[in-house]
């Protein structure tokens, strides 16, 4: 499978996007459990949508997931010139201002389906970004992915290596994290996300406090024309967070969740809806993902 993905990077990008579209439609039909999770998340996040609108958004999301697999292979093996030619950068001045301070910088990333494709470009802009990642459970895949990331980035830091992450920030490096997936450990906070309480990771606030690093929100998304054909990528840097962290870690988490929500509302089909974002969200014991038999 990995060999096939690598071979696909030699195809024209428009072909890759068409293959990704077909793959996404296939996943939508075959992955019933993931389709159910996405449907529940979309129902909670967008209660104003009709069932027809929600089902279309769910299908569009799976298409985006399929194209995201092509994006991932491009980020691992694609030529830097090809990536640069496909990409538009918005808010580069925010990144430049942050880098000019020569201090630690946290790129607050978010799980959109094109997450990985922005990595090699950001690494060039930051002289080797240090990226935090979730180790894969399969040892062979973990070996391959870790090797690729070590080559593409300044440093790849497993998310469990908190000390290494803090050292990178205190040495003045740029660290890219994406802590917006469901977080259910003892330090989790129950914070509204699209108006519904969701387990939230407050690590961005804590890291900024420990390292005195600036925080700049950052996303990578796919751009489409009026016929819904992919045309390239948008790398967006938002202004650095001011008065952050505050003395109230819950208010900081509310603030970062709102930033994610604003970006997800703008690109709803591309935010990652196939994980259980609202699992164990509060003390009520509600299981939003339980499938009840008639």
Can you walk through the features of this model?
- With 294 residues, this protein is α/β, with parallel strands linked by helices.
- It has a single domain (2-270), classed as Glycerol-3-phosphate (1)-acyltransferase (3-Layer(aba) Sandwich), CATH 3.40.1130.
- Helix content is 47%, strand content 17%.
- The protein has eleven helices and nine strands.
- The strands form two sheets. A seven-stranded mixed sheet has the order 1-9-8-2-5-3-4, sandwiched between helices. Strands 6-7 form a two-stranded antiparallel ribbon.
- A hairpin with a 5-residue loop joins strand 8 (214-224) and strand 9.
- Helix 2 (13-30) packs across helix 4 (51-77) and helix 3 (32-45) packs across helix 4.
- It starts with a helix and ends in a 28-residue tail after the last helix.
- The mean pLDDT is 90.
Summarize the structure.
This protein has 294 residues and is α/β, with parallel strands linked by helices.
Helix content: 40-55%
Strand order of the largest sheet: 1-9-8-2-5-3-4
The biggest sheet, with number of strands, parallel, antiparallel or mixed sense and barrel status, is: 7 strands, mixed
| Poorly predicted runs | none
Order of helices and strands: HHHHHEHEHEHEHEEEHEEH
CATH architecture: 3-Layer(aba) Sandwich
What's the number of domains?
A: 1
Q: What value does the Rg take, in angstroms?
A: 19 Å
Distance between the termini: 39 Å
Number of strands: 9
Overall body shape: globular
Total helices: the number is: 11
Structural class comes to alpha/beta
């Amino acid at each position: 499978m990995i060999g096939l993905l690598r071979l696909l990077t030699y195809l024209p990008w428009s072909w890759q996007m068409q293959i990704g579209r077909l793959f996404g439609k296939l996943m939508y039909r075959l992955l019933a459990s993931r389709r159910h999770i996405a449907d529940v998340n979309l129902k909670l996040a967008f209660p104003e949508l009709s069932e027809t609108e929600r089902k279309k958004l769910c299908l569009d999301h799976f298409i985006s997931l399929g194209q995201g697999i092509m994006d991932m292979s491009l980020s691992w093996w694609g030529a830097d010139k090809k990536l640069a030619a496909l990409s538009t950068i918005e808010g580069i001045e925010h990144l430049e201002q942050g880098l000019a301070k020569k201090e630690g910088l946290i790129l607050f990333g978010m799980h959109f389906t094109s997450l990985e494709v922005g990595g090699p470009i950001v690494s060039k802009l930051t002289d080797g970004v240090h990226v935090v990642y979730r180790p894969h459970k399969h040892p062979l895949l973990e070996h391959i992915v870790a090797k690729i990331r070590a080559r593409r980035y300044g440093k790849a830091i497993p998310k469990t290596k908190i000390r290494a992450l803090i050292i990178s920030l205190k040495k003045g490096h740029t660290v890219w994290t994406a802590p917006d997936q469901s977080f259910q450990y003892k330090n989790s906070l129950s914070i509204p996300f699209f108006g519904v309480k969701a387990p939230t990771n407050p690590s961005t606030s804590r890291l900024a406090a420990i390292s005195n690093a600036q925080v700049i929100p950052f996303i990578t998304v796919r751009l489409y024309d009026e016929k819904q054909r992919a045309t390239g990528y948008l790398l967006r840097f938002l202004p650095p967070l001011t008065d952050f962290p505050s003395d109230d870690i819950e208010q900081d988490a509310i603030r970062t969740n709102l930033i994610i929500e604003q970006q997800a509302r703008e690109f709803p089909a591309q935010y990652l809806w196939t994980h259980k974002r609202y699992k164990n969200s509060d003390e009520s014991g509600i299981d939003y993902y339980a499938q009840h038999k008639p």
